Amino acid sequence: MAKILMLVAQQGFKDEELIIPKEMLEKEKHRITIASISRTKATSSGGRIIEPDIGAYEASPEFFDCFVIVGGPGSPTLAEDPAVRRLLADANKLNKKIAAICLGPMALAKAGVLKGKDATVFPDSKAISMLKANGACYFAKPLVIHNNIITADCPDSAGIFGDAIIKALKEKSE
């Protein structure tokens, strides 16, 4: 099964945007690794504390089949981290599956992954502006898929987001 790297903000990731897709992917027997900017404890916006398996700077784009950016109010910090941006840009060059939900697509935009691609993001004017400024074609939809890129808009879309990732991984293995 696929090896999936889920990236969370050190502070302020959204619980359901991690837990729902993660459980769906694990049910399909995919192997999940959790990363953040560092290995220090990460805290969700709801107070959940997790210990990332690795720091983003340790992740190899060649090792993983899919990269998932978990959203939440803290996820724009991922967009500012050079190691996260480099990892996402390198994964995109390798045509890996890349998915982001809520404010997570901001990291994809800053990494250059969304240039010339259709995408969605949480309906926040700053987030939408960042996507457009980095070459994305923004759509106000719950889910947008463009080739190897999957974006979703908010916590309510976590289930369809997880389904889209599972479907994309099945297509890759066929």
Q: How does this model look, in words?
A:
The chain is an alpha/beta fold and 174 residues long. The protein has one domain: Class I glutamine amidotransferase (GATase) domain (Rossmann fold, 3-Layer(aba) Sandwich), CATH 3.40.50.880. Helix content is 35%, strand content 24%. It is built from six helices and twelve strands. It has a seven-stranded mixed sheet, sandwiched between helices. It has a three-stranded mixed sheet with strand order 2-4-5. Helix 1 packs parallel to helix 6. The longest helix is centred in the C-terminal third of the chain and has 16 residues. The two termini are 12 Å apart. 47% of the residues are buried. The model has no long low-confidence stretch (mean pLDDT 97).
List the helices and strands and how they pair.
Blueprint: E1 3-7, E2 11-13, H1 15-27, E3 31-36, E4 42-44, E5 49-50, E6 54-55, E7 66-69, H2 76-80, H3 82-93, E8 97-101, H4 105-110, E9 118-119, H5 125-133, E10 137-138, E11 143-146, E12 149-152, H6 158-173
Parallel strand pairs: 1-3, 1-7, 2-4, 3-6, 7-8, 8-12, 9-10
Antiparallel strand pairs: 4-5, 11-12
Helix pairs in contact: 1-6
